[in-house]
Write a structure and sequence with these properties.
38% of the residues lie in helices and 23% in strands. The strands form three sheets. Strands 1, 3, 4, 6, 7, 14, 15 and 16 form an eight-stranded mixed β-sheet that branches. It has 358 residues and is an alpha+beta fold. Helix 4 runs parallel beside helix 7.
Length: 358
Amino acid sequence: MRLGLNTRKIGAAEVVAASRPLNSNEPYAGRSGDINAGSRTELMQKMVEIASRLQNGDFESPVAEVASSEERTQVLRAAYEDRAGTGFADLGASIAAEISEHATRAGFCRRLLTRADVAQGSIPRVRARQRNVDAVIATGPVQVATQVVRDKYLYPSEFDIVAYPMIEQREINQGNGDVLQEKFLETQEAFMVVEDRVVKRLMDVAAPIYNNIQYFSGTVTPTTIKQTQQQVQTWSLPANSMVMAMDLMTDLATGSTFSTFVDPVSKLEIILTGRLGTLFGMDLLTDGYRDPRLQVLDQGEFYITSTPDYVGAYSDRGPIQSEPRNNTGNFPGRGWYMFESMSISVANAKGVARGKRV
């Protein structure tokens, strides 16, 4: 059952596409789903404008949002009042499935790292493409450790990410807003944001081990990005992705120096997942189109990483699991216990470089 909970992706493209730019009577996108723009520079400027207006809530469509909110409220009420329990359990499983799907499609963790399969009854094992290099592994949601890769395999620690989305009986009785959407965002923050923050913490530790952090002031320049890219390439590794805060996209869009280097994506659906195009052969990724609660990058920073098989790996044991919880402790309501078991590691610190505005 698809609930359409993730409005940053599901349904957002249609609302944004039909809206008009601030200084134009032409809608943002045509029937093909491509942003209407006459040049690369104009396209990038509209991409920045869309991100800014998303953060400001400018694209809320009263008719569409009331309808979708009412539908979600009806789904929640029906499941909540199903005392047999199957409807509420199914609703929790649907929420967990949508969060897992979106994390795979738009999360940094699952796009920058390769997925390592873990058989039941075994422990995570990541193949090391290079030996005698420093690796950084997560030992928990907020702890990391470094170690030297000596063998063919790295054995990262496995840890749990847990969330307890709970709904009070009072919220159901009073019909307080779009409760289901709010609980979805809370749970998404508990999982995808935690995964991405772990990866960011690993990259922060890994980047200066072999490579120098590229500090810059003012606007970012092609030279700064190229120098950071070359640090990864110096180790005979391909530079595959550039992950950047959205304010740096403003630098790319407003400066003429990038017009010949950036090849922006024009499909609105793709842009809303955070993939902006390519620069110097690297995929450009950002969290600037997410709800502010789901963003993990600091302003003025960017990372350049090699291909996932050279950078590191994550493992999970299937999608996020969900179990119903009723009247836990003194809580007057119902909810779910959701969890996933993961390992996350940067197996080769040479494959990560970082730039930062000062």
